[in-house]
Amino acid sequence: xxxxxxxxxxxxxxxxxxxxxxxxxxxxxxxxxxxxxxxxxxxxxxxxxxxxxxxxxxxxxxxxxxxxxxxxxxxxxxxxxxxxxxxxxxxxxxxxxxxxxxxxxxxxxxxxxxxxxxxxxxxxxxxxxxxxxxxxxxxxxxxxxxxxxxxxxxxxxxxxxxxxxxxxxxxxxxxxxxxxxxxxxxxxxxxxxxxxxxxxxxxxxxxxxxxxxxxxxxxxxxxxxxxxxxxx
Length: 232
Description:
eight-stranded mixed sheet; 232 residues; 7 helices; disordered N terminus; alpha/beta; Rossmann fold
């Protein structure tokens, strides 16, 4: 558990968050973007009265188990970036809700994520480009970040053994993994074992008592993500 031990100072949110956050409601636009097999349903959120300081794409959990861009953890990730002045794209993977196509076992979904990144880049907004995801979406985001140069990555409870094993290269950007030590779907020990095979690897934040969906811990999750992104 060397990787966990190395991250003790960042456990439990011990560092105090000192960020001036955007507090007004964002401007939200429902739209469709062009994906590899048709249109992808999406929501673009942007600060209402503040200049855009960066861009982020958020990937949702497993579409075969009810995951959509409206998932509360995906929404929390979007709000973390928004509070830092980012514009944020959430989208539904192929075959999810109004998105075209059918589920593709994580293969086509990687192409969907790359299409989302390309769409955001085409907007030519100032600032860095970040990628984030939860569970299945976190694993897809890891693979997308390894293929596309992004400026930062946030992976929440990543299902890496099922959907991101066998990476031939890893993301070379600042990278945070957040997971609860009572995650009933993605074992934290498996995540640590996977991380220990990476060099230099991501930073790890383990939230004691938190389970997979971070019930009652979403504000803590949001603040941890904001601190990591702001510090970069």
